[in-house]
Specification:
Length: about 375
């Protein structure tokens, strides 16, 4: 059996560990008791994950003598909204909590972001622990303390920075993940490689096709991604600088997600995949990036079964509308949209002076293609 690996997010007195290993859901009760000694915990989970992994978590909490309650919510991006935030905080307050109550987010990025935001705001701040169950959440969203909910105006527009006390990434639980969700998470893994680790991208090109079946290689890849994320967050917790690189593909991706209304037609990771390709293509169009590097990124994402073109299903797409969404993104300053562009594989950078005409030209070409 593979060992458990430990990384630390170095944030002074708010530093926390990321544990990566094969049976951390079952062991969570004992780990929590030893490390955090909460008075009691409230587990937040969606219906799908509850059916698959909640019993193991609860058995471990019982065995460790940790008192617990559970709130179960519907699965999917639509749950990350104000209405479900209201339902969740209401249910938690009804349990009768105190400042040492700890929330456990058992699920993907939706449950992680929503639970983290509830933890940030309930009693002005409760401890919470991320137990990510999707590849996306294990390589990206569970680490770094960005918590949020979506509104109809855009993604993650209401939120807070609130770091978890611990991240428990149970690699064995990924075995139950549907392949489409696995691929969506893989897009964020590719993103991390494309930002600043060309060697990791070479590696993913080689092992991508067999990664889903290869537990050890997958666990290594999760570790590489978490290490990069942990270092980035420790250097720039509130995203005043280099943390913004992690938004590669997200300005375009979020616009696609908002346009489609979070209904599951395009998963977050799928939107990011298309967004990464558009960011590379914009970089090529601006003469910043070799065309071959953009082609390589597109080829690899497509070969892994990810979408790389704006979907045709929605007939309302126009460059104008997508640009309007981008202008509402959080990363807009004085009307200028911040893009993460690239000089090639592993050479992403923050670009704040991009002319909107260059973006709409590219979108128009892509929408016509
Ligand atoms: N906070 C951050 O830094 C950050 C970073 C990246 C993404 N995000 C957010 O993360 C969200 C996307 O996360 P996601 O892709 O994990 O989506 P998700 O939470 O909706 O999970 C995807 C689906 O997989 C199911 N599922 C989860 N674990 C499973 C398992 N082990 N077996 C079977 N099914 C399982 C869920 O029920 C759900 O239907 C987006 O809202 C995005 O904005 C946040
Ligand atoms: Zn993302």
């Amino acid at each position: 059996m593979s060992a458990t690996h430990r990384l630390t997010v170095a944030l002074g007195d708010r530093a926390y560990d990321i544990l990566i290993g094969p049976r951390l859901i079952a062991d969570a009760g004992a780990i929590l008791k030893e490390r955090l000694a909460p008075t009691r915990v409230v587990t937040v989970v969606d219906e799908t994950v509850a059916g698959l992994h909640l019993a193991a978590l609860q058995a471990g909490l019982d065995a460790a003598g940790v008192g617990h309650r559970t709130v179960t919510l519907p699965p999917g991006e639509a749950t990350k909204d104000l209405a479900h935030y209201g339902r969740l905080t209401d249910a938690i307050l009804d349990f009768g909590i105190d400042r040492r109550t700890t929330l456990l987010a058992l699920g993907g990025g939706v449950i992680g972001d929503l639970t983290g935001f509830a933890a940030a705001t309930l009693l002005r701040g409760l401890d919470f622990v991320q137990i990510p169950t999707t590849l996306l959440a294990q390589v990206d969203s569970s680490v770094g303390g960005k918590t949020a909910i979506d509104t109809r105006q855009g993604k993650n527009l209401i939120g807070a920075f609130h770091q978890p006390r611990l991240v428990l990434a149970d690699t064995a639980c990924l075995a139950t993940l549907p392949v489409r969700e696995w691929r969506a998470g893989y897009a964020e893994l590719v993103k991390i490689a494309l930002i600043k680790d060309p060697g990791f991208f070479d590696h993913l090109e080689r092992i991508g096709p067999t990664l889903m079946q290869d537990r050890d290689a997958l666990s290594d890849a999760i570790r590489i991604a978490c290490r990069m994320k942990a270092e980035t967050v420790a250097a720039d917790e509130k995203e005043t600088g280099e943390r913004a690189l992690l938004n590669l593909g997200h300005t375009f991706g979020h616009a696609l997600e908002v346009e489609l209304g979070y209904g599951g037609e395009l998963l977050h990771g799928e939107a990011v995949s298309i967004g990464i390709v558009l960011a590379f293509e914009l970089s090529v169009a601006l003469g910043l990036c070799p065309a071959e590097d953009a082609a390589r990124a597109r080829r690899h994402l497509a070969s892994m079964g990810l979408p790389v073109d704006i979907p045709r299903s929605n007939c309302g797409w126009t460059a104008e509308r997508l640009l309007a969404h981008m202008r509402k993104d959080k990363k807009v300053t004085d009307g200028r949209i911040t893009f993460i562009l690239t000089r090639g594989i592993g050479k992403a950078f923050i670009a704040t002076e991009i002319a909107p005409a260059a973006v709409s030209d590219l979108l128009e070409r892509r929408l016509a293609a």
